[in-house]
Amino acid sequence: FGMRLRHAELKVERALEHLRSLEAEMDQYYCSEPHSIQRYNDLERGRHIIKVGLKEPSERTYLLVGDFAYCLRCGLDYIVYSLIVANTGKAPHTQVQWPVLKQTDQGRFDSYTKGMASEAARLIERFQPYQGGNFKEHPIWQLHRLSNIDKHRRLSVFETWLDMQFPQLKKTDDVIRDAERDEITLPLSLSQTEMRLNPRPAVWFGDAEEGLRVDVKRLREIHCYVTAEVLPLFAPFFTEAVR
Q: DSSP secondary structure string, 18-72?
C-alpha cells in the first residue's frame, strides 16, 4: 500500500489527458459543421419556417467524458486512502472514499474517513457540497454524479438551439420556437428577415432528471478546482511519508 499524494496526482493528471482528448474531439465536431439550416415558406400554415438540424457528437465523446469523471473522482478517493495509510501506517480494512454529501451525515462521513488525522477530515468536510449554496452546483457533486452515472449507463447529451439572432425583429413580432419540431416560425411577411448565426451549438452532458448539465468548459473548471483548491491542501500530511 502507498502513502503518497503522488498516487492521487497521477489519477488527476490522467483525467487531464482525457479532458484534452475530449476538447480535441469537440473541436472536430465543430469543424464538421454539425448544424443545418433550412428556410422555406409553408403556405398551408401561413408561416415562414426556419428548420434547425443538429448532428450529435461522436460516440467517443461520451467515453471521454466518462473516463475523465472516473479518473478525477478516483483521485479524490486516493487522497482519502493515502491519508489513512499515512496516519495509521496500515491499509484500511473497511470501505473508505471521499465523501460527497448533499446534507450533513456525520455517521456516513466518519465511516468513509475513519483512520485519517482529524485535521485532514476537517479539510475534507470543507469541500462537502452542502457547505453553502445549491449543492447541485458544487464542482465535486457534479463530478461525483457524472462518475456514478457513467458506471451504469451512457451519459445523456443535451444540444441547445444554435445561437441565432434576428436584429430586424421586434419583441412584438409573432416569432414561435417549436423545440419538438426543431424549428422557428415567423409570419410570411417576415420571410426575408436577416438571421445571424453562431455555428457552434452548446453541448452539455449529464442527466435531465436530476438537472445535471455540464459542458466541456465546466469540466475544465472542475478539474482546475481539484488541482488548485483541493490537492495542495493535503500535501502537508505526507511530509513524513516521503522522507
A: HHHHHHHHHHHHHHT--EEEEEEEETTTTEEEEEEEEPPPPHHHHHHHHHHHHHH
Q: Percentage of the chain surpassing pLDDT 70? A: 95
Please name which of 216, 175, 146 lies closest in space to residue 47, comparing C-alpha atoms.
175
H or E element: which one contains 164? strand 163-165
CA distances from 73 to 34, 40, 222, 224, 236 (A): 31, 49, 11, 13, 21
* β-bridge pairing 163-165 and 196-198: antiparallel
Selection from 103, 93, 99, 91 nearest residue 121 by Cα: 99
Q: For residue 163, what is its C-alpha cell?
A: 445561437
Q: What are 53-77's pLDDT values in tens digits?
A: 888 899 999 999 999 999 999 999 9
How far is CA 241 from each of CA 37, 43, 88, rounded to the nearest angstrom? 61, 77, 11
Q: How far apart are CA 68 and CA 117, in angstroms?
A: 29
Q: What is the pLDDT of residues 86-106, one digit of tens each?
A: 999 898 888 899 999 999 999
Q: Residue with C-alpha cell 489519477?
A: 11
Is the separation of the CB atoms in 197 and 224 below 8 Å?
A: no
Q: What is the pTM of this model?
A: 0.86
User: How many residues in total does the chain contain?
Assistant: 243
Which cell numbers in the block locate residue 242? 516521503
